[in-house]
């Protein structure tokens, strides 16, 4: 993770995903289990604060969940939670909030006007705020997990340095892809499962299109030709809309694939690593 923290301090946008079937350990990977067993999030935050003093910077955070493909602020009390609006501003300055607008391209600015952002003074302050927010996340019981995440959680750290360099780090605990034959979902859980699987499919299509375009650019360059690029389907889900300024271009991404043991997860394992 240290090389990725280096990139955030250089002003780049970095995204880290934990992906896998439900009950495969994604949440544990990202948030760990206490001070003696820190996950990716705790390790990254501690490393950032180690460097902040010398760099003369500040750190702030936002934390939201995507439940049924709608964004909600996890840093406000549950009684005050409202669906957030996602706005996109093109390089031409036009702003849109709906999926029928023109396709998004990398470099489009994404913002959620009502999403709260909180300044963080120390790792201890972060842990307190994060624990409070994590407790607000939507969970539910399935046959595979008594406390299954029913939403995608998106923690964003904003780093501002004295030299005005701004870096951004997205840390995502994606809800698990689900096979309803294994989870025994009731109608309510099945609705959540459908939204989860649909958004994960959309994310996969975006990543696939980005990879195809990278190959096309490389191939065209070797021939001295203009590449034929695919349209990146960022608007396919709220998840991919939120990440449209973090996937592609000069941004960096790390995918952590979590695998569940057992022959019953064989097909899920193949899909995860395929």
Automatic annotation (TrEMBL):
This is P-loop containing nucleoside triphosphate hydrolase protein. GO terms for cellular component: microtubule associated complex. It comes from the Eukaryota. InterPro entries: Kinesin-like_fam, Kinesin_motor_dom, Kinesin_motor_dom_sf, P-loop_NTPase. ATP binds at residues 20-27. GO terms for molecular function: ATP binding; hydrolase activity; microtubule binding; microtubule motor activity. Keywords: ATP-binding, Hydrolase, Motor protein, Nucleotide-binding. Residues 1-274 form the Kinesin motor domain. One of its GO terms (biological process) is microtubule-based movement. It comes from Gymnopus androsaceus JB14. Belongs to the TRAFAC class myosin-kinesin ATPase superfamily. Kinesin family. SUPFAM superfamilies: P-loop containing nucleoside triphosphate hydrolases (SSF52540).
């Amino acid at each position: 993770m240290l090389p990725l923290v280096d990139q955030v301090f250089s002003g780049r946008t970095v995204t880290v995903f934990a992906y896998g079937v439900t009950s495969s350990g994604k949440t544990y990977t990202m948030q760990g289990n206490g001070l003696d067993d820190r996950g990716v999030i705790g390790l990254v935050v501690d490393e950032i604060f180690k460097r902040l003093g010398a760099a003369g910077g500040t750190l702030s955070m936002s934390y939201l969940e995507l439940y049924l493909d709608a964004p909600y602020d996890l840093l406000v009390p549950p009684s005050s939670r409202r669906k957030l609006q996602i706005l996109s501003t093109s390089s031409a300055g036009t702003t849109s909030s709906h999926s029928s607008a023109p396709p998004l391209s990398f470099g489009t600015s994404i913002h959620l006007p009502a999403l709260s952002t909180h300044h963080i003074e120390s790792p201890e302050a972060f842990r307190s705020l994060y624990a409070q927010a994590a407790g607000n996340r939507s969970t539910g019981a399935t046959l595979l997990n008594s406390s299954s995440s029913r939403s995608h959680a998106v923690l964003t750290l904003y780093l501002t340095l004295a030299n005005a360099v701004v870096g951004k780090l997205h840390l995502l605990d994606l809800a698990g892809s689900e096979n309803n034959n294994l989870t025994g979902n009731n109608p309510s859980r099945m609705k959540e499962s459908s939204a989860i699987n649909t958004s994960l499919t959309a994310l996969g299509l975006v990543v696939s299109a980005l990879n195809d375009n990278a190959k096309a650019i490389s191939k065209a360059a070797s021939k001295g030709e203009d590449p034929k690029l695919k349209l990146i389907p960022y608007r396919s889900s709220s998840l991919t809309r939120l990440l449209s300024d973090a996937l592609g271009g000069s941004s960096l991404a790390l995918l952590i694939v979590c695998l569940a043991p057992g022959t019953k997860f064989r097909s899920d394992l193949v899909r995860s690593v395929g």
